Amino acid sequence: MAEISNVFLATLSGEPTETTPIWLMRQAGRYLPEYRAVRKRAGDFLGLCYTPDLATEVTLQPIRRFGFDAAILFSDILVVPDGLGQRVGFRTGEGPVLEALRNEAAIDALSFGRLVGHLAPVYRAARQIRAELPTDTALIGFAGSPWTVATYMVEGGSSKDFAKVKTFAFSEPVVFAKLIDLLERSTVAHLEAQIAAGVQAVQLFDSWAGVLPPNALRHWVIDPTARIVERLRSRYSDVPIIGFPRQAGLHYQAYVDQTGVDAVGLDTTVPSEWAVEELGGKVALQGNLDPALLMAGGQALLDAATETWLGFRDSQHIFNLGHGVLQHTPPDNVAKLVDHLRSLDAKGSAA
Ligand code: 1CP
To answer: Which DSSP string do the residues of 177-192 spell out, in sequence order?
Structure first.
């Protein structure tokens, strides 16, 4: 097999590397002044996602600044409902606003056939980004998991208690299953189109996995993810899949055992000793510095980064946060974090 020149992809395929791969969830975004400038030019957020030149520019910004080992396609998990024909908007300061789905007729009105054509600009962006990225920087594609995307579709936006979507899933499981099935097919089609456009690994963001009780988590998170992984594998066996079932707690174990992902994203609550011991022999581990430490900076950040680096040393580890970069994070803290990790790598290989 040809040697993999990118440390992120090498780590995902189980090979040892001299340095720890680094990228951060939400590494592009509002904490960067150059992002805010492009965002202003684009007008609305979806317009930014659907303009390949601008999506390319904001994807590359954190790579130029910090030299991460991987770039993540600039897009959003909510382009899928938008592509299916549900109206999606982003209001500054309020987050996403969707026309909430509440019944079977609204689900039946969504159009799988519209999805990939509507999202063509996203795939054009992926192709352009891959062409412009340094060859030793990997490109990650992504989608939200069916459950997490469904929470936005049914709640009509972000939620605190997930009462509407949970009530729907518990009281009308057969109808809710139709939505999840549509989202499974949509996720596969969307990720396959990204892979065809050049992304080299994919991440499934299940930001709200942790709000479900055990049986529902198995049914609406683990089972759909297993089916998505199986379908992607059957067509693209060499593209690694990272699953991020945020706040899945005790279910991390079953998620890893039953979904077939190649790597798992750990949220901030997961102890490294436990993850290395219980999951490290099976999959690569990604995470899990608290984003608030990155925002705080100073010695607290450096100490915590060292602890994370040491904690995952005996695993296939991809350094990342336990959730996305916070909006008010000073960019200089990110530069200091990357320098610090590179110096730990240098010392580690000299030891
Ligand atoms: O005005 C702006 O500029 C909007 C801010 C913003 C950004 C920068 C949103 C709105 N989305 C994004 C980009 C984005 N979203 C990326 C690519 C950038 C990168 O990682 O560098 C990715 C991977 C996402 C994924 C995403 N979107 C998730 C999963 C990860 C997570 O943070 O949990 C979720 C839940 C969303 C929904 C979303 N998009 C945007 C907002 C404000 C929200 C709602 C978040 C919430 O409900 O708390």
So the answer is: HHHHHHHHHHHHHHHH
Distances (CA, A) of 6 to 256, 331, 343: 24, 24, 19
For residue 187, what pLDDT is reported?
99
120 class by beta-carbon count within 10 Å (0-12 exposed, 13-18 middle, 19+ buried)? middle
Record the tokens describing residue 240, joined without a space: 């690694």
Mutate to test the pocket of ligand 1, among 34, 36, 64, 76 (most ligand atoms within 8 A of CB): 76
Q: Please work out whether the CB of residue 210 comes within 6 Å of at least one atom of ligand 1.
A: no
Helix (H, G, I), strand (E, B) or coil at 161: coil
Secondary structure class of 109 (helix, strand, coil) = coil
Closest CA to 321 of 344, 347, 346, 341: 341
Res 1 pLDDT > 50: no
Which amino acids are annotated catalytic?
26, 30, 39, 76, 152
Dihedral class, residue 91 (left if φ above 0, else alpha if ψ from -120 to 50, else beta): beta
Q: Which atom of ligand 1 is nearest to the CA of 203?
A: 23
What is the pLDDT averaged over residues 312-327?
98
Q: What is the pTM of this model?
A: 0.97
Per the CB < 8 A criterion, the answer to whether 269 and 247 are in contact is: yes
Plot region of 154 (φ>0 → left; ψ -120 to 50 → alpha; else → beta): alpha
Phi, psi (deg, nearest 5) at residue 263: -150, 155
**Across 283-300, average pLDDT:** 98
**Helix spans in 67-197 (H):** 79-84, 104-108, 112-118, 120-132, 146-155, 163-171, 173-196
Q: In the prediction, which pLDDT does 91 show?
A: 84
Residue 247 in tokens: 């706040």
- Single out the residue of 302, 295, 294 nearest to residue 328, CA to CA: 295
ω into residue 288 within 30 of 0, thus cis? Answer: yes
Burial class (CB in 10 A: 0-12, 13-18, 19+), 282: middle
pLDDT, the chain, mean? 96
**pLDDT tens, residue by residue, 230-274:** 999 999 999 999 999 999 999 999 999 999 999 999 999 999 999
